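ASSEMBLY PREDICTION REQUEST
Request ID: AP-0331
Submitted by: J.K., bench scientist
Number of chains: two
Total residues: 862
Priority: normal
Notes: Please return the full assembly, not individual chains.
Input sequences:
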Amino acid sequence: MGTNSSMTRRDFLATSAAGLVIGFFLPGGGKRLLAEPPAGGGASLNAFLRIAPDNTVTVLLKHVEMGQGVATSLPMVIAEELGCDWKNVKSEHAPAAPQYFHTAFGMQITGGSTSTWESFTQLRKAGATARAMLIAAAADRWGIDSKACTTENGFVVNGGNRLSYGDLAEAASKLKAPKEVALKEEKDWKLIGKRVKRLDTPDKVTGKAEFGMDVKRPGMLYAAILRPPFGGKVKGFQCDVARSLPNVVDIIEIPGGVAVVAKNSWAARRAAAAVVVEWDRGDGAGLSTAKMKEEYRALAKTRGAKAAEKGDAEAALAKAGKVIEAEFELPYLAHAPMEPLNCTVEIGEDGCDIWTGTQSPGIDQAAAAKILGLKADKVRVHTPFLGGGFGRRANPRADFVSEACEVAKAMKVPVQVQWSREDDIRGGYYRPMWTSRIRATLNEKKMPAAWSHTLVGQSIMEGTPFGAMMIKDGVDVTSVEGAANSPYLSSIPDHRVELHSPKSPVTVLWWRSVGHTHTAFVVECFIDELAWAAGIDPVNYRLDLLKDHPRHKRVLEKAAGEFGWGNELPVAHAAGVAVHESFGSFVAHAVEVSVENGKVRVHRVVSAVDCGPVVNPDTVEAQIQSGIVYGLSAALKGEITFSQGEVEQSNFHNYAILRMTEMPKIDVHIIESTDPMGGVGEPGVPPIAPAVANALFMLTKKRVRSLPIRL
Amino acid sequence: MKFTLNGKPQEVAVPDDMPLLWVLRDALGLTGTKFGCGMGLCGACTVQVDGKAARSCATRGGDVAGKSVTTIEGVAAGDSPVVKAWCELDVAQCGYCQPGQVMAASALLESNANPSDDDIDKALMGNLCRCGTYQRIRGAVKRAVEIRGGK
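STATUS: Completed
Returned structure:
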């Protein structure tokens, strides 16, 4: 197997057998549902837009808004082709229905930094098709040929005659959609590529935006759930005291634990604290981070499943004079979105309504249908804004939706389950813990000649419906992404990358940038280490190794140049750099750090990103900044650990995230690029931890080999 | 319990020890104030009590009896330079923490019309943003100072 044969996520997307996944998730075998009747008025021209008589264009979002800006960027793509007045555009989340399936994943999901590129052509066509139908409706009314008509900012025009889209929408919606439509040429784009202001800002800033937690239904009760420790289940529980507290309605056992149902959030929370549950702790009883680390370290010294191989790395290492070796350790991490998980379920005579901030409404719909014994199309998933997702709100096991369905089913009234922050931090579905061991040798030109990398960490995909597609010959592609297909390997004649996937009762999930969260750290720190061993400037060393990887080179040169790499820094400040590709985009960060009062202080980050053509540069900039901060929180603070079966962290005091006072100045430079479009939600994360670690080496002359960074 | 809510008298029948956050959200239906941590650690629930920023999740409802409470709904109903600045700079991403950020920034500007960078950082360090919008928040506070006619 050559190094480049490792399947990248994009390859997976391009080749996945969508039918298999649809069949799994949609009871009924993927039968096409009819378009939902529009909830907010206006005529549907297709699944993605409707136009009201007052000219309001409502775009239905196939991807959910969780901060990444799709509620603005996807409408921009449609509006560009539709030719409407941008001032009249609104957007709302689409319901769970097959029309909104991801063009590559074959299900309705927001993730993998794919939203813009996967729907770009589809949405342009949706806009162009609707425009053609509006023109046809106008031509019918005027009794002329469509070819004599054009459009201007929300009007169909023929000479002095004008009809507004709002006037025409009803008639246009009854016409047959054209099969082929011409799309605008890039030079004629008026919206795409411009800094367009977000549509969701005013409501979010004034508290009007509705999140899942804000949903209220008539007669709704509130529930808090006591969930078992990892690997455990309920043995029994005492709730006499809790039951006697004011406003408590019931305390019941459900498959996912013990649910405390009350008339308000606080009563449920307070009563939950008074329930004493006896757990059967099962195989999670002795969970201990220290013990797991020992096991992982031992495994890292043994042969694993082959993820990439060229030549004979072991033989080359054995005969080499000097072997450079390093072991890296990264902890479990919680996503900790600001809005704790929650889900509201109302079961009625005609099926069930669910309100929840979810990245995967189709998966949740299928899970709810199964629990409630309903057909999928009788489960209506309504998606309010998501108060952060970062991967946690796309769970193949639909955990937070399933448990809410169980409670509502038992209580027979609308129920909102709210997670506390403690539930969230201790609730699992973490970024897996990782150990990586790398050994390498340098040739006479001081470049890497042999490279052996062994990774140890739980598989995210195993046991999920994605496993069949994403685990190949014992290798979960997401475990080794960024390591098995590292661009550096292409110039190393003898190399191998191997993987161990130990099992644990601790649940794991994709965490903003998935495998890249650990592989970028390991690879970019180790390359830096080799550069210093070679006595070559780390930027130049990388540029030499990346000579056949123009997009990597381009962002690295840009970040280093804009940073002023090599220029003198203030006393006791140091610089570090890292570059990494993920989700089809290329990002380099150059950072300036110091140590203040025994703590790492990141002063500035200069970032360059090549994500191909850009829809909204303001969004790209915001997402790269966001990824940097998310990655810095992990690099400097984030850690979930276990002792005697218990998670040792519980809330933001001991699972800390970056604060305002610690915020570096960030400059983001977007490379003008005609290369394929990539994502931007995640790619800012991977290179920040290694850039900071590499800078710290300059100050302390000690290598950072574990996260969070401890000086 | 009687208090002033967004400038108007308010009466509500809730236990004294119910946190103000839940009085506002569950009893009074004002959902702009957000639950984030329940321990006064994240600032998502920030309101103003007698003009000062307060964590409503860690404030007993009974403790605001007779006092004046302002929530994001109150600030948004007025002509808020902070809201304007936040919109101009497109600060929000997921948006969940932003009402709390706006409340903290508004309280800062009421007590300090020309805050330094350090003042801004310190006043807002208790308000967490998982999307990492801090850079734009800094910019928006400065813009709000300009809109208010400060320096």
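REVIEWER COMMENTS: The radius of gyration of chain A is 27 Å.
SIGN-OFF: pending second reviewer
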